[in-house]
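Listing S7. Sequence submitted for prediction.
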Amino acid sequence: VQLQASGGGLVQAGGSPRLSCVASGYIFSRYNMAWFRQAPDKEREFVAAVTWREGNKFYGEFVKGRFTISRDNAKNTVYLQMNNLKPEDTAVYYCNRAGPTFLNWGQGTLVTVSS
């Protein structure tokens, strides 16, 4: 089982990167998926989740309409479109199942937002 996140990097404030996460080793389409993030010296926090058929989406309060989660079950991939990034969005972003149990977290992808 593997979760491979990508799409991070150095972004200027106001930028709009799209993160991708490819899952392998399990039946991706049967599980709700989510993005989480962990900033330096902070605990991991919930960013967004999408149900298995993409019928419902949920977001952390700090998102405030700036991010959009989506998925492509045919590609075993979940996406996070981020808009209007702020320096406080700097973190390692991870994808995983939406819970209550989680897979190995993997490396995540680092997003660094410069002001």
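Caption to Listing S7: primary sequence and predicted structure tokens for the chain studied. DSSP finds no helices and ten strands in the chain. The first strand starts at residue 2 and ends at 6.
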